[in-house]
Model the fold of this input.
Amino acid sequence: MVERSYFDWNATAPLRPQAAAALAQAFGAPGNPSSVHAEGRAARRLVERAREQVAALVGAEPGNVFFTSGGTEANMLALTPAIETARDKRPRDRLLLSAIEHLSIRTGGRFPGDMVEDVPVKPDGCVDLDALSGALARASRPLVSLMLANNETGVVQPVAEAAAIAHGAGGLIHVDAVQGPGRIACDIGALGADLLTISAHKLGGPKGVGALVRRADAIHFPEPLIRGGGQERGMRAGTENVMGIVAFGAASAAAREAWPAEAERMRMLRDSLEAGLRAITPHAAIFGEAAERLPNTTLFAVEGMKAETAVIAFDLEGIALSSGAACSSGKVQPSHVLAAMGVSPALVRGAVRVSLGRTTTEADIERFLAAWRKLAKALSKGHSIAA
Ligand code: PLP
Done:
C-alpha cells in the first residue's frame, strides 16, 4: 500500500487528540444546556468552558463569542446591513469586500447586490489600501469585510491598517480569520476587528462548528440569521451543538498552547519544500511569495500543467493536496483569487495548493518532492499531466 502524506490542511485539519478526547467526554453529557436541572446545568458548564477557551484564543471576552455551525454561517451572520452599535442604530449603507474573499463572503451575505462593492488586490495578493480608502470615502456607514489570510495563497492581509482606515471613515470591519489561529497571531483587539469569524475544523476541531466573535458588546444584530428559542443570547437560535462546541474549545486551547512553536516548525518544513520545488522546477511560480504568507501554505504552478490532473497524479503517489480552493470540491472553477492578482489564465489553470500542518514531517516533504520530480519529468515530456 502507498504511504499517504496529507497536504490539505487549509481545506481541513485532522482532529487534535485533545479535541477527540473532549468529544468523547461530551458524549456522556445527556442534558440540554437550556434545561434547569443538574444534567442541563452540566451541559451548560461544558459549553461555557468552551466559550472561554475560544475567547482566549482570539483575545475576546467569553460573552462576545457566539457559536455557529461553522465559518460560513458566521460570515453570513456578520454580513448584514442591520448591525447596530451603541452610537449608531442606522443600517449600514455599503459592504466593501476584497476581491479575494472566500465565497461565503463574496456572496455578500444579506446585503442587496447593489450595495456591495469590490476592493481590488495588488499583484502580491494584498488588498489595495488606497482603493479601500477611496471606496470608504464614497460611503457613509460602510461595513468592510477583509480576510486575515487567504485560503489559497496564504497571503496575510494588512488587517490592522485596513481597520484603522475603516474606523477613520466611520465604518466597521469584519475579519474572516478562519485560516489564522494556530498559524499567525489572531488577537481581535490587536487586529482592530469589530467582528471576527473562526472555524473549528481549520485548527484541529471538528467540522460543522465555528463562531462569530465581536470585540465589544456595543455591537448588536437585531435580525439574527436563525430565530427561535433565543440561544446564544438571541444571536443564533437552536439547541447548541454541545459535542462540537466542547471539542472546538479543546482544540482552541491546544492550538493556543502550541503556537508559535508549531507554526515555526511548519514554516521550516514549508520553506524546505519550496527550496526543493525550485531546485526541480526553477521556472515554477509560487504565488504571493513577495508578501507575508501563512507559514504552512504554498500555491504554485508551472506553465502547461492542468491542476485537476496534477491533483489526481499526486493522489496516486500518496499525496493529498488540492487545486486552489477546496470548498466546491468536485466543481472545478478557475481561482478568482489568482485572477484578482492578475495571474495569466494559463497559470491559474495549473495552480496546486500544498498546505502543511502540525503532524507534517520531513519524510512527508521528501515524499512530496519525489512525486513532484516524477510528475515534472512527465510534464516536460508532454505526458499524462500536461494540459
Ligand atoms: N473562510 C475561509 C477563509 C475559509 O477558508 C473557509 C473554509 O474553507 C470558510 C470561510 C468556511 O468555513 P466553514 O468550512 O467552517 O464553513
Observations:
- The chain has a mean pLDDT of 95.
- The chain has two domains: 5-14+259-380, 17-258.
- Residues 70-72, 102, 104, 147, 151, 176, 178-179, 199, 201, 210, 327 surround pyridoxal-5'-phosphate (CB under 6 Å).
- The first strand starts at residue 5 and ends at 6.
